[in-house]
Amino acid sequence: MAKLLKSKLSRKIVILTAVLLVLFGITVYKDNKSLVESGAGAALNPVQKVIYSTNKRMESLIDFFLRYEDVKKENEDLLLENIELEAKLRSFESLQEENEKLKEMFSIKNRQDQYDYLGTNVIGRTGGGIITSYIIDKGSDDGLQAGMAVMSQEGIVGQITETAATWSVVETLSSENISIHVTTVEDKMNSGILEGHIGSGQKQMAKISYLPIDSSIKEGDDVVTSGLGRFYPPDFYIGEVVRVEEDKGNLMKTAIVETAVNFNDTRMLFVILPKNMEDVEY
Fold first, then answer.
1. Are residues 180 and 57 part of one domain?
2. 123 and 50 inside one domain
3. Which residue spans traverse the membrane (predicted)?
């Protein structure tokens, strides 16, 4: 039925186009026009406008039918993506609500309340095309210490590895010198050590190593800090799992993570500062 409709519409377009060309040939492009012909052209001009307008509408209609399947597929893809995002949001909200209830039940103190955030500016970089570390304009005079976590508005960037009085060195997540204990939002049992990793095309990434072979970690999982470690609050965003590799010989998995932070476009960072070093849990 759809093919028959397209065929009929195509024939109409061809006929209307031929008529339009004849009319323009008579009234516009003819060199020796008589007075009568000119009058006829003037009379036909409104008709030509109507035909032209109708022709355009039919072209749009045909274009719609020809692109109908593509448009339908695009709408379906967008709908599925929206459903997936809503499902993720519901899952996250459910976990958050459950955690809050458990905290109230056992009077557990919120770990994130134990930290402040100090804004700093990036004043230097190392690594050339692959940014492995930054130099920031705050140091030990501001209370900074090696090991403190550093973040941007997108998520965790890395940690401080060296301090001076007025500046500090921050190693990024893609550096092999950094190790962070992480987990996934979808399953807290998917915990492991995140280290730097350089992907294809020298892309800066990270990887979670030594995951058990029966781990449920999968592509699309959201990776966050686990909260283990002196300077890392829990549930701070790291990035998304883009690939899972199996080492069946050693009964382990490795998850490749695309970090949320664009290391080449970072200008301002925030150091996560414990309010009281004695209160920070290990």
1. no
2. no
3. 12-29
Predicted pLDDT of residue 259: 93
Q: Which amino acid is at 56?
A: K
- In one-letter notation, the amino acid at residue 23 is L
Separation of alpha carbons 152 and 130, rounded Å: 18
d(CA 65, CA 55): 15
Residue ranges of E strands in 213-266? 222-225, 237-247, 252-259
Q: How confident is the model at residue 54 (pLDDT cuts 50, 70, 90)?
A: low
95 in a structural domain? no
Residue 76 maps to a domain: no
The reply to whether 146 and 268 lie within a common domain is: yes
Whether residue 144 sits in one domain with residue 219: yes
In 3D space, the residue among 144, 175, 179 whose CA is nearest the CA of residue 162 turns out to be: 144
Its domain, for residue 163, covers 115-282
Domain assignment present for 92: no
Residues 267 and 132 in one domain: yes
Residue 128: left (phi > 0), alpha (psi -120 to 50), or beta? left
What does pTM read for this prediction?
Answer: 0.60
pLDDT for 242: 96
- Cα–chain-centroid distance for residue 167? 32
- Residue 238 inside a domain? The answer is yes
11: exposed, middle or buried (C-beta count within 10 Å: 0-12, 13-18, 19+)? exposed
Tens digits of residue pLDDT in 64-74: 556 666 766 67
Residues 41 and 181 in one domain: no
* 166: amino acid identity, one letter: T
Identify the bridge partners of residue 113 per DSSP, sorted by sequence position: none
Cα 206 to Cα 155: distance, rounded to the nearest angstrom: 13
Half-sphere exposure (Cβ direction) of 73: Cα atoms closer than 13 Å: 5
Total number of domains in the chain: 2
CB 191 within 8 A of CB 183: yes
